[in-house]
Amino acid sequence: METPVFIIGLGLLIFGAHFFNRIFSFTRIPNALLFILFGIVIGPVLKLVSPDDFGKMGPVFSAVTLILLLYESGTNLSIRNSNKAFVPSVMFTASNFVASATVATIVALLFFPELELIAAVFFGAICGGTSSAIVIPMLKQIKTDQTSSTYLILESAISDVLCLVVGLAIFDAMALGKVDFGTISLKILKAFFLASLIGLVSGYLWSISLNLIRELQNHILINLGVLFIIYGTSEYFNLNGGIASLTFGFALANSYLLPSKKLGSRWIPKPLLREEKLLFSELVFVFATFFFVYIGLNIVFAYPIVYIASSIIILLILVLRPWSTKFTIPTQHSVRDLGMMSVMAPKGIVPAILAALPLQLGLERNNEFLVVQGQIIQNLTFSIILLSIVICSALVIHISSRKDGMWYMKTFFAKKIKTESDAGDDDGSNDPAHELLDEMLNRQEATSDSKPDLSEGGSTASTEPEK
Fold it and tell me: Among 362, 360, 340, 372, which Cα is nearest to 177's?
């Protein structure tokens, strides 16, 4: 492909990402699905572009997307939000994660006997969550009560981190290539502990340095440079750069909450500015757009068994989710909202990025066996992402158009159903996580509808709450 055409394509993708965000309210079709389909059309169908065209930039692009995603996930984790609302949310998330991961692992082993157990467990772990990039925009366009939305958004946020942490841990075990679980666990814990320590300490020290850094012109992107250095340094010493990126973002977002009055005004950690958060949110948004197209380019239709296995996995996940909703959600909801919680299980960018890691490792080591394992994992994961978005979007649209949800829900959720009189008395505004939900929705809206002011005279309003 000629360079001018390639540049025009990049521009159209960025424009399209923001344009489709706007028309989502009319189509209710997630951006991710549209860009995956676009990648399929220009790749496997028309053969205008192939993954080989990216050369060595493919793995680098995946790594940068992962770094940005982990960092932003860390900045979205708040110490202030560790309240009672997290208990049912964690139970809901954990039960869905374990059930989904178990189903995916078992089905993968049954359909692909050549897949090693640890590779199948890795595949199950990265497919155990839901995608916040798809769940949150959907919830903004459909009417659900405040508490139901809270559980779904918290599930997507927590499961993103859970998939990343567990997936990276198992990938480290795959990289070691040993079956000694004691040795593997010890090395993984050591790598994770040291990487977390690097991220937390670096984040705290950098949050103090921001007092001086912000006196410089054009300082916004310095955080990005430090983030890349932390990731690269951790990986260079065989530690987990992803966890270092995650904890670095967490430390930057929360260091200002630590007691530090005795340090003096110039040494007190500062919170991230709104402009800094918006910039990284925009970067994640753009890189995610390109990555969904990259997924479409890599989807292979030559193996029907992959799509049969993926369909069975998604079907079983949707069968199990109502049970976790029934036994872990403590409050009553409408039949429609219970249905939403039961079918909102789309997969997204986190499993897509992690699925590419084993194949990249096999290519780097020239290990044919690992390449085969990685190819199976990548094909399965990409097909699950595509099918889960299509199926879940269709079910959400169907349920949102019906007051009573799906036919079996009144009987299944009999004790969980909120009557109309109860619904009128409780709008969800007293829910413990109400403020957290508003914060996450506002962050999504700000990312889509506004651009950070990076000019010299731009606002420097911080995210620190008024005291």
Answer: 362
Longest CA–CA span in the chain (Å) reads: 65
Q: Which CATH number is 3-449 given?
A: 1.20.1530.20
Burial of 257 (0-12, 13-18, 19+ CB in 10 A): middle
Instruction: Give 185-213 as a DSSP string.
Output: HHHHHHHHHHHHHHHHHHHHHHHHHHHHH
Question: What are 190-237's pLDDT values in tens digits?
Answer: 777 888 899 999 998 998 888 778 777 777 788 899 999 999 998 888
pTM (2 decimals)? 0.72
Domain edges within the chain: 3-449
What kind and span of H or E run contains 74?
A: helix 57-75
416-455 residue pLDDT tens: 666 544 544 444 444 444 555 555 555 555 544 544 443 3
The tokens describing 361, both together, are 């490792």
Residue 203: phi and psi, rounded to 5, are -65, -40
CB-CB neighbours of 87 under 10 Å: 13
